[in-house]
Design goal:
The chain is α+β, with helices and mostly antiparallel strands and 293 residues long. The protein is built from nine helices and eleven strands. Helix 3 links the parallel strand 2 (78-88) and strand 3. It binds magnesium ion. Residues 71, 74, 190-191, 193 line the site of magnesium ion (MG).
């Protein structure tokens, strides 16, 4: 398939949006509305690392965008625009490329986020990148604000994402992230891409605090063991630290309750992450998720 035809696909699909110009020029332009903060995140998806080589183009495109949107959810931002790049072997062929492009455009439409630009290349393996831009009404809270005495909450249920196949089509918690940021001002918020065991310590380190998590409180997916719920990645739920007063207010929020909203632990002065199960210390006998070099 000719590159020009692929470019045309994106030019034609670009919806008219205030403050945005789309593909077709050297640069896209973005003019955020007054009072909004532009937040941005870049992500990559590598064949054989994030998805098996047997995953089809449509699955790749959909997961790519959803993972990126999950980062916007953690910032409490509304998706505003997206750019992406595709590198793939020529052997994949035109039909593969078309399927990838159409799936990405379709998914962008589902989440109402215009594709403002991209780049194409041949490469020995498939490597996709995606940069999402979102608008936030307040400054995102990041990971560094957790304080001793705060409580730790998660949306949804954890564990078994890979085994069940849920990892292929995560559901970014966009509405929930915005609700949390705008109404309850969390002290820290992030999305769980690498699992509780790997992600919670990132908040603890950034905030220079410690925590105890209560295993019996961790909401597990059906068929997922507690070990997999704390150690496996790819859940794309939100991990949120709230001051006690805000936690009380948020505990009865209908939007949060609808997807599941559970208190799992407490932030403490003493550094490090401790696990308890039914009152006694517990050590998850699993390796945290992640890439190693
Ligand atoms: Mg993230």
């Amino acid at each position: 398939m000719r590159e020009e035809a692929l470019h045309a696909l994106f030019r034609n699909a670009f919806p008219k949006r205030r403050g945005l110009t789309g593909p077709g020029d050297d640069c896209a332009t973005l003019r955020p509305p007054k009072g909004s903060l532009l937040v941005q995140s870049v992500d990559q998806l590598v064949e054989g690392v994030h998805l098996l080589p047997t995953a089809g183009p449509s699955a790749m495109a959909r997961k790519l965008l959803r993972r990126s949107l999950s980062d916007l959810a953690a910032a409490g931002a509304k998706p505003w625009a997206v750019q992406w790049t595709v590198a793939a072997p020529t052997e994949k062929g035109g039909a593969w490329m078309r399927a990838l492009m159409h799936a990405f455009l379709k998914e962008a439409k589902v989440w109402d986020v215009p594709v403002i630009g991209g780049d194409l290349s041949t490469a020995p393996h498939v490597v996709l990148t995606c940069t999402v831009m979102g608008l936030a009404r307040k400054a995102p809270v990041g990971r560094g604000g957790a304080r001793s005495g705060d409580s730790i909450w998660v949306t949804g249920k954890l564990g078994g994402a890979v085994e069940s196949g849920r990892h292929r089509l995560p559901h970014p918690r966009l509405a929930e992230g915005r609700r949390l940021l705008e109404k309850y001002t969390p002290h820290a918020m992030m999305d769980l891409s690498d699992g509780l065991m790997a992600d919670l310590p990132r908040i603890l380190r950034a905030s220079e605090v410690g925590a105890t998590v209560y295993g019996e409180s961790v909401p597990c997916n059906t068929k997922a063991s507690l070990a997999s719920a704390v150690a496996e990645g790819e859940d794309y739920e939100l991990l949120v630290v709230l001051a006690p007063r805000q936690a009380r207010r948020a505990s009865s929020d209908a939007l949060l309750q609808k997807v599941g909203w559970t208190e799992i632990g407490v932030i403490e002065k003493r550094k490090g992450l401790r696990w308890k199960l039914d009152g006694t210390l517990w050590k998850p006998q699993v390796k945290p998720w992640g890439h190693t070099w």
